[in-house]
């Protein structure tokens, strides 16, 4: 008996490969014509739909050695679902294109599909189409759609001086998990941080809840709190003043302190500079009863000659934190 | 004075890069919230939308040396727009993700955006979002949306024995253009074929026209006539019998004969086996007045023990033509 090599995507024809994983993908509650035709047909009961797209590249956004195919599928789905939630919408449907190096095991691809399904299925979100190509580097491109259920979308541009800045979700934990994986110095008690990096769990319902509560602006934090807050401020023609994390999110700082000390860094850097937790950053008129799960981080203020639109102050200083992800420079 | 090197995408930050090309992209007639927020918002007047996605990889689907960035942008758009037309829908909106090697010139990216715009702008289709990442290999992932204007989608599965098989658009010309580029043996009079490969011009209006005329099944020909016809037949539980190209499309055969002779191949192979012209392959009940531009290629017949569902006969034989593109095997 000879040992059988694990089949790779190059061992199957394109049609056979597709047929092997389509049954692993969920059909959504708005799916009218599922994957398999020239296009899928999706219900848009609102008469509008939201659409967002993200691309993940092996070696840049994930490393095969760091987790399973299901982890990659989960994260690809969740970071896109968070973009829909950040408009105040409910996600309905996604399509997924992939570039696969020919030696990719079929089992990895199937595991990836299971991760997509674990993320989307419970939400009633369909995986309603996709495309595959061979290539040198593994790439995942997800496009996600959502329904506004009759509400106005919550844009980045609506924050007004006097509004409260609030956040729902984790801060700094994905960055800490990433730092542990990158350092190779992970230990037993670090696994929850690594899981928060590999399997982000944004509070997706916080997006529509913020919209219902009257949020004036919202976005998801994907590239780091300071960098994303600066984008929201710039689009709103305002500045944001954030309280120091030790005051606004002391539990988050405390939970990262041990690992930060071991990696010889400051947990505040992860909280202010790290991305990929995909929490919801939103602004509300002063006095709004914030939806469950939101924590006040600061206030919106008027731009000035000293502090032009887009400035983010921490305490009363411009923080000396390196910015979050820049995919062409980092 | 030193010569200035052409700026690459690595020379600009991600935000600066995006700001540099967004003004080149068209806003669509259904765009409610354009690119720049967490998601775009698109009108879906029909209460449904069609969605399809395709990925193009440098070295597999295009080569930088073969054409301009605008050619790549045009083709990426058109092959997606054709998928929407093949449902009988009108395209409305697309989002485009890209993986760019850091040495990619900014001017190439801008040229790519102009190609997208040339394809989408005149149709009122918006380029309403996207994402960029660095990576080793240039990848373009397009997701396109369309509106059915109250019609039923025309699926691949509706062909019935007795229906007429018809096609609108070019056949074999993109394959001939590709063969010329791959052979390096192009000459002056071959430029129209190369242009048909680099800049496919599917008759997008033929899709909705076929739907209005009562097409029972439809798809766009992207992977080769025989392979795609086989998919339509299989999904319909039927077989297709096509007339020999010399009888059904004699002008197309004649127009390719010279180049085929020079490259020592048979033009019929390009017509039956070549893909990427993105014409509309549709079936209609016998006696239907075909929309302008459609040519009869054959008939739908019942499957049998000898010829199971999915069989495509040319004349009365199963043709010995190598199948079209298989991205993991070709």
From TrEMBL, chains A, B:
Name the coiled-coil region(s).
none
User: Where is substrate bound in this sequence?
Assistant: 61, 276, 325
Q: Where does Mg(2+) 4 bind?
A: 38, 52, 83
What would you give as a GO molecular function for this chain, any one?
A: thiamine-phosphate kinase activity
Q: Where does Mg(2+) 3 bind?
A: 38, 83, 220
- What EC number(s) has UniProt assigned to this enzyme? 2.7.4.16
Q: Pathway involvement? A: Cofactor biosynthesis; thiamine diphosphate biosynthesis; thiamine diphosphate from thiamine phosphate: step 1/1
Query: What does it catalyze?
Result: thiamine phosphate + ATP = thiamine diphosphate + ADP
The record lists ATP as bound by 130-131, 156, 222
> Which residues does the annotation say bind Mg(2+) 2?
54, 83
Write down the Pfam families for this protein, in alphabetical order.
Answer: AIRS, AIRS_C
Q: Answer whether the UniProt record assigns the keyword Nucleotide-binding to this protein.
A: yes
Give the miscellaneous note.
Reaction mechanism of ThiL seems to utilize a direct, inline transfer of the gamma-phosphate of ATP to TMP rather than a phosphorylated enzyme intermediate.
What family is it from?
A: Belongs to the thiamine-monophosphate kinase family.
Record HAMAP family: TMP_kinase
Show the PANTHER family listed in the entry. THIAMINE-MONOPHOSPHATE KINASE
Function per UniProt? Catalyzes the ATP-dependent phosphorylation of thiamine-monophosphate (TMP) to form thiamine-pyrophosphate (TPP), the active form of vitamin B1.
Tell me the protein's name. Thiamine-monophosphate kinase
């Amino acid at each position: 008996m000879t040992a059988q090599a694990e089949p790779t995507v190059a061992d199957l024809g394109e049609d056979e490969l597709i047929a092997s994983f389509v049954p692993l993908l969920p059909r959504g509650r708005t799916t009218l014509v599922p994957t398999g035709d020239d296009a899928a047909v999706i219900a848009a009961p609102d008469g509008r739909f939201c659409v967002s797209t993200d691309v993940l590249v092996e070696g840049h956004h994930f490393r095969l050695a760091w987790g399973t195919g299901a982890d990659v599928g989960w994260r690809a789905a969740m970071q896109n679902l968070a973009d829909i939630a950040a408009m105040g919408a409910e996600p309905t449907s996604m399509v997924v294109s992939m570039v696969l190096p020919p030696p990719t095991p079929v089992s990895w691809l199937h595991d990836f599909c299971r991760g997509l399904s674990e993320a989307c299925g419970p939400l009633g979100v369909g995986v309603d189409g996709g495309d595959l190509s061979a290539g040198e580097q593994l790439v995942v491109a997800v496009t996600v759609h959502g329904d506004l259920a009759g509400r106005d979308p919550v844009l980045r541009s609506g924050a007004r001086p006097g509004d409260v800045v609030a956040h729902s979700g984790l801060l700094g934990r994905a960055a800490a998990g990433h730092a542990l994986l990158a350092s190779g110095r992970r230990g037993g008690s670090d696994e929850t941080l690594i899981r928060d990096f590999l399997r982000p769990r944004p509070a997706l319902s916080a997006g529509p809840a913020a919209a219902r509560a009257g949020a004036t602006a919202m976005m998801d934090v994907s590239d780091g709190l300071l960098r994303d807050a600066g984008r929201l401020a710039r689009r709103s023609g305002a500045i944001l003043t954030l309280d120091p994390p030790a005051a606004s999110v002391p539990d988050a700082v405390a939970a990262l302190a041990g690992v930060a000390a071991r990696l010889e860094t400051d947990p505040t850097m992860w909280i202010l500079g790290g991305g990929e937790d995909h929490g919801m950053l939103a602004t509300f008129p002063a006095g709004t009863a914030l939806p469950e799960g939101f924590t006040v981080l600061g206030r919106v203020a008027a731009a000035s000659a000293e502090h032009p639109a887009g400035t983010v102050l921490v305490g009363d200083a411009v923080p000396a934190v390196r910015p979050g992800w820049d995919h062409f420079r980092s």
